[in-house]
């Protein structure tokens, strides 16, 4: 029997609407360490996006290496395999590999090419031993693949997607050959940081991987000989191919759109080639994300009334790091229906929230005349008329389209004064 933990998309060092999230990541890593110690798996695999940016803060890196140090000290026989995601600086992430390898921690960030323009597929193959020290699995640690990382496939209709397919085919073939050195029954466990076709993504926090939008790979990229595919990138936990291919999801919500996700890690138990059991271990939410109103948007007066009576519970789950600062206060997103320009809107909201244990992270303004799936306002003015139409006419048309009424005299006068200042600046030598 072999036990593996699958997680991904930690995004250590993320700044959330200007707020640091170190407290939440500290809570998660503390919980993860205790969960690993409780279950004693054979391996922990992390499929990309360890950090949120290519230049993570010193604090984020400290958290990362402190966690690895504690894992190595507490469970020296447990294998740790980590790959780089599209948010990570791949070469920098794997730079300390010689040191980490001595601690049974393997980090794969880059694709290594030889002088003969061939890929070193052995770099991706990491043997995994069970309790009796028998090599019972081969981990195929494939990081996020950029167009320059994949092999060239002649006459391919899509060079990138066919290149990804070819790389996984070659890695799988190399893994099957390597397994013969140990046992023909060794499981193949593939890792990837990619977007599988049909996957449910969070557009608020997941970056487009490849410019052009053609980066979604098909499920048949992963050979049927692979017992399990551990994916990262999509923050919502989801599965394909009867659970053989899975995203673990992110450990904390990385946007308000993810506040209703069940955040978890996956415990995989391999009993034999025909049986894989997957247990979902829910991660405690250390800091709530609150939307007011809960659904849709409301007028500013309605929002203020809701905020006045909002009930807040700042109690944290047990066995998490103690922190009595504002880092444990909930994040708040306020969604207001636009009724017209309101320069005092933020101040009014902040006044109602004054003294409450909550952090105002976002004020989202929604137009009552805008379709729910509309991302931007496009004034219905023919672009060919812009050579002779007056700026005030554009302003009036855009204002009417957004608010379904003419601007108040004070607003129109303010616009005219701004135009006069611009004219004077352009006329001055």
Question: Would you kindly provide a written description of the structure presented here, covering whatever features stand out?
Answer:
The protein is built from nine helices and 17 strands. Helix content is 27%, strand content 21%. The radius of gyration is 26 Å and the shape is elongated. The protein has a six-stranded mixed sheet with strand order 6-5-4-1-13-14. It is α/β, with parallel strands linked by helices and 429 residues long. The chain folds into three domains: 281 residues, Metallo-dependent phosphatases (Purple Acid Phosphatase, chain A, domain 2); 79 residues, Double Stranded RNA Binding Domain, CATH 3.30.160; 55 residues, no CATH class. About 6% of the residues have low confidence. Helix 1 packs parallel to helix 2 and helix 6 runs parallel beside helix 7.
